[in-house]
Write a structure and sequence with these properties.
five-stranded antiparallel sheet; 533 residues
Length: 533
């Protein structure tokens, strides 16, 4: 399956091509809220064909890697579909990454052409030194490759087949490259094949049925990551796609109401920002059907608050770049069941194993463990990446006997719900005891003064590692008592797991997709060799 298939199938499945008039805020198509641009599905098809012809003129062919380096926009979607239409491989670059990090990905992938937003080119002229004008295709909110959308959306003089586009691909061929988190070093590139994308689509369609009202998906978090990936099935189903660059709480909340948003994806840290906003209860969220959260564990108390405000629409999945999006699924019904039965352990889980996926808990020797016993989460099935790009050694290191190890410690309960205990590398060894930070973080997240927190091990002569909580407050002027937090954790978890100190930071360091970066926090206390500073 190619990415362009999602767009082309939308016309056949939903007849969206007939909606070429009436360009109001509820017309079906792609709406760019920042650049005041609207394209019907048919116009997007036309633009993708014309841009694919531009790529072909530049010598781009099947399986060549083409990068997109641009903020969220309808123009960026046009570029993605053009890349796919010519059979090339899409490499999304997050504009919130550092330039150095993105240049490493460009070099590692061997990308031959980049779709480059003009604002980024102006900020980083060295990008042009790397690619040259010949291998850079510039875009902004109203133009791509020097062509205004008024000309791009016109019906091409020749159809796609006549100019050598739309050739079918083998399911094993690479469709896209996605950067891994790079939490312990430089990011690797996970190869997603046509079969990977086909499986993502199959899972999402089976678990998240088309709503009973006209669908409208809002892309606010970076479309180069999960928020964009999750949009392709709604595109195939003919949903309206609303695009805005960045998550400004007040604006996002008002857009949900004014544009009758049905689908929204955000990481937990962004949801915390919404919940902390003074006007969060001011707007109407009754149109929401799927408020999808993933990418990091979420506070149970804040999840309950989100359900109270946004309604019974919260859904969660678990995945990673190597096994994308939906290894598990926690449905809106599961969330309600947790409240009705007073079972917070369901809310602490990331759901049950998704269709078309096999999941097991393994010990260090690779033996499968029974329910309710902790071990490393392993996955197998067609959802998995093809492998790490040009890195067979790294691929082999995480695959054994058909299973792909995730690096996450988890446990399956008797009802089949998977709880993520923590990342293996985040475990703290304090006084000879294994301490998993997520259990402590859940407690601290639930405190009303706390906006977000991270628990790490800090070097200590007596304990080896001292459990330390680093917190970000909702209101910096209302600082809770450190000893009260420590005693609260001690009462709930015991003295071994309770933090020995609590540090108050103005802001926790976060990745471009909103994850708290524990490695950056650790750098304050450890040198690169893991020694005390």
């Amino acid at each position: 399956m190619r990415l362009i298939d999602f767009l082309d199938n939308s016309l056949a499945l939903s007849g969206c091509h007939s909606d070429a008039g009436g360009r109001n805020s509820h017309s079906i198509g792609f709406h760019d809220l920042d650049n005041d641009l609207f394209l019907t599905y048919q116009e997007m098809v036309n633009a993708s064909i014309q841009l694919a012809a531009v790529l072909k003129q530049k010598g781009v062919g099947p399986q060549d890697v083409i990068a997109t380096y641009a903020p969220n926009s309808v123009a960026a979607y046009c570029c993605i579909f053009a890349i796919s239409r010519i059979g090339a491989v899409w490499l999304p670059l997050n504009v919130r990454n550092t330039l150095d990090a993105n240049l490493k990905l460009i070099v590692k992938s061997g990308a031959s052409v980049v779709f480059l937003d003009e604002s980024i080119a102006a900020k980083y002229p060295e990008l042009i030194d790397h690619f040259s004008e010949k291998h850079s295709i510039f875009l902004d909110g109203q133009h791509v490759a020097g062509l205004a959308f008024s000309s791009l959306i016109q019906e091409p003089e020749e159809d796609a087949k006549a100019i050598g586009l739309n050739s079918p691909i083998d399911e094993d061929e690479v469709v896209s490259l996605f950067a891994t988190g790079g939490t312990t070093g430089d990011s690797k590139l996970a190869e997603w094949s046509g079969l990977t994308w086909k499986t993502i689509a199959g899972i999402q369609q089976e678990l998240m049925l088309k709503p009973d009202i006209p669908s409208c998906y809002l892309v606010s978090a970076p479309m180069s990551h999960a928020a964009g990936i999750a949009s392709f099935v709604p595109i195939m189903q003919g949903a309206s796609i609303m695009v805005m660059d960045g998550m400004v709480p007040d604006r996002l909340l008002s857009v949900i109401e004014s544009h009758q948003i049905t689908h929204l994806f955000l990481p937990p840290t962004a949801i915390y920002m919404l919940l902390a906003h003074d006007d969060v209860k001011r707007y109407d969220y009754s149109s929401l059907r799927y408020f999808w959260y993933a990418a990091a564990p979420m506070s149970v108390e804040k999840l309950k608050e989100a359900m109270e405000i946004f309604g019974p629409v919260m859904v969660q999945t678990y995945g990673q770049a190597e096994a994308p999006m939906s290894c598990t699924y926690l449905s809106a019904q599961d969330h309600l069941l947790a409240l009705e039965t007073n079972n917070p352990s369901i809310l602490r889980s990331c759901g049950k194993v998704a269709p078309y996926v096999e999941l097991a808990i393994l010990d260090d020797e690779g033996a499968e463990l029974p329910q309710e016993q902790e071990g490393e989460i392993a996955v197998r099935g067609n959802l998995l990446m093809k492998g790490y790009f040009e890195n067979p050694e790294a691929t082999a290191a995480i695959r054994h006997d058909g299973w792909q190890r995730t690096g996450d410690v988890g446990v399956l309960d008797k009802d089949g719900y998977l709880a993520i205990v923590d990342r293996k590398r985040d475990m703290i060894i304090s006084g000879g005891f294994n301490v998993y930070p997520s259990e402590i973080e859940q407690l601290i997240w639930g405190m009303p003064e706390i906006k977000d927190c991270a628990v790490i091990g800090v070097p200590d002569e007596k304990w080896g590692e001292q459990v330390t909580a680093v917190v970000e407050l909702k209101n910096p002027d209302c600082v809770p008592d450190e000893q009260e937090i420590i005693q609260y954790c001690k009462n709930k978890l015991g003295s071994v797991k309770a933090p020995k100190q609590v540090l108050f930071w103005d802001e926790l360091p976060r990745s471009p997709v909103g994850k708290v970066l524990k490695k950056e926090i650790r750098k304050v206390f450890w040198d690169e060799q893991g020694r005390n500073i």
